[in-house]
Amino acid sequence: MLYSQESMHAYAANVYTTVVEELMKAKYRKFIVVEQEFFRLWWDMVAGEVQKQQVHQLVQEGRLEFVIGGQVMHDEAVTAVDDQILQLTEGHGFLYETFGVRPQFSWHVDPFGASAVSPTVFAMSGFNAHLISRIDYDSKAAMQDSKSLQFVWRGSRSLSEKQEIFTHVMDQFRYCTPSYLPFTNRSGFYWNGVALFPDPPKDGIYPNMSLPVTRENIQQYAEAMMTNIKTRAAWFRSNDVLWPWVNTTSVLFISFIVFYASY
């Protein structure tokens, strides 16, 4: 618990505080929160009354959304099914009791492998869609070639068709959109600051942070982004491409910016 609190102060507290601040500045801005462990620590230990009122407003407006909603993204290989249900129930209970909402989608990008239990549990939990990433490389390559990264998954043969769930497999780039850019040797589509324990830097500037987007380099960023979107588009049948931009300081805390690009 102490390590979680330190991680929250070093990583998540500044993220959630600034996200709420920036969302309140413009109606068109949206943000998606994954999992509850760090959010609940921020909510209980950091957020003030004004911030909590703002979060309630943003959730009701649909500009702050929760996906998966469990305490964590549970491992699929060794976690018992009752523990999977327990941590999901606890997270969903907090969201419903606090905001009156329940998550509509899973975000299961980190667990290694994909068991039939998770899509079954998620379908029975009322999720509308299931998203995974870490599967066998050869299988993923074959699915890309055949444009079958999206499918309807019935995790249990014994259950009815109502327990099927639409599933999206992230492509070979996973949630890590290529970071290389021709004009810098630093990461382009990442925020790779090194967190400092136990307290973050007061000025918000972390060591080894990526170069910011500026008026001078935004054209190159845009061109790199569009090139990657077009590459990914060839692997899917739909006209919408999920394009993730990961903000990561370590494997302890990851937030995502996800764009849906229509072409």
Automatic annotation (TrEMBL):
Domain of life per record: Eukaryota
Keywords: Membrane, Transmembrane, Transmembrane helix
SUPFAM superfamilies: Glycoside hydrolase/deacetylase
Database matches in InterPro entries: Glyco_hydro/deAcase_b/a-brl, Glyco_hydro_38_N, Glyco_hydro_38_N_sf, Glycosyl_Hydrlase_38
Pfam families per the UniProt record, alphabetical: Glyco_hydro_38N
Ranges annotated as spanning the membrane: 242-261
Domain called Glycoside hydrolase family 38 N-terminal: residue spans: 5-245
PANTHER family: ALPHA-MANNOSIDASE (PTHR11607), EPIDIDYMIS-SPECIFIC ALPHA-MANNOSIDASE (PTHR11607:SF28)
Protein name: Glycoside hydrolase family 38 N-terminal domain-containing protein
Annotated organism of origin: Ranitomeya imitator (mimic poison frog)
